[in-house]
Amino acid sequence: MVIRQERTEEFPQIYDLVKVAFQTAKVSNGKEQDFVNQLRSGGSYIPELTLIAEENGKLVGHIMLSKAHIVNGADKFEVIYVAPLSVVLEHRNKGIGSSLIKESFRLAKEMGYTSVLLVGDPAYYHRFGFKSAVTFGIKPTHEIPDENVMACELVPNALKGVSGTTDCF
Against a cut of 0.90, is the pTM above it? Predict the structure, then answer.
């Protein structure tokens, strides 16, 4: 398996991969593939942190990390968030998602990012160090159950003293 940055010519394949992968996901709104396209066209897109997993020439996984902020009054703290992580059904439980997360986090830390947010299944993401975002004093701006909104510090104590609402979901 190869993990590498996505390529522009792969965008249609990635759209389909994300759409199909989320048809069997535990946490989904059915619009993740459109959200990927929206993120690419906005100012939060980080091409270096948008990766695919390729096996025998076939795309089998995708992860996108984008810029966001935690806002508390006039204070803004930059974070990144995972939206989305996708692995095609027949390739799940082979470590592809874990590999995509670990590599994207390694690159993010190298680029100077210190913390990550996401909406997802706690049973899956806790193994990577994610905790409920409310334990850090972080709330989403939309109605999403607290247990599904999570934060992870890439650098110890990166979120110490940071609280507010996040503009990423």
Answer: yes
